[in-house]
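Re: that chain you flagged

S.,

Sorry for the slow reply, it's been a week of failed gels. I finally had a moment to sit down with the sequence you sent. For the record, here it is as I used it:
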Amino acid sequence: MPAFNLPTVKFKSVRDLLERCEFNFTKPQYTVFQAKYEKITATLYESGKFLIQGKEHELILKMLFEQEILMPPEAPADCWMGIDEAGKGDLFGPLVIAGVTLDKKNLSRFFAEGVRDSKELSPPVIRELAIFVRKNAPHDVVAIGPEKYNELYEKFQNLNRLLAWGHSKVCENLLSKSEATAAIFDQFAGEHVLENALKNKKGDLRIIQRTKGEEDMAVAAASILARDEFVRRVYVLGNREGLKLPLGCSNETQAFARKIKAERGAEFFRKIAKAHFKI
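Prediction finished late last night. Pasting the structure tokens below so you have them in one place:
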């Protein structure tokens, strides 16, 4: 289900194109319009999100691209990598850091496929897009299980330094698989923290740290791989221990953690959870 964020100035162009293609229009709540033609449904939300559904959506995408109504974001380099993580805020399970390398040739394809920040996607769509990303781009995933995570956290005494270590490891691994000249990171700490971790590893690689890093297509693809691997590992870990481990760190999750820790002890708890979280 490809989805895009459209600027307001593109709303009329999209509607005009769909009208010429004889789509039928309705206006459900919170939408600018919803248009249907045979097995294709196109919905433009008031937020600017434009969603295309249906097995024949490639035809509409082709027309939208040809008329430059939909355009992929600008590439920051001829070949670059994006790196992101999942599990940082989850009490149970690992910390997973993933990286993806893109170039100008496959940027449009990833854009057309609907690759974007995993936080905007449902679990089934994340699973589907993760398969696509793994098949179509050099990538690397580093998963730090709870036991190793707790050991590293005690060593670094700081989550940002631990994150920087993991991000630098993925960056180093990707450099051996591609010819990337730039790397984009979703900023999680002061610039010096990551720069120190990458020292003597990056060579001539241009490092870009920015907020909302997932707006970059490579970072968005990395966020999908990281989330997919994180959820899979939480399920496997829970299944191995006979537990249904909850995601996140809600009050309910913390209550569950306290119960497990009291029943099975602190040593067992360190095998399934991030021990420094306050519960």
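What I noticed first: The mean pLDDT is 88.

Talk soon,
D.
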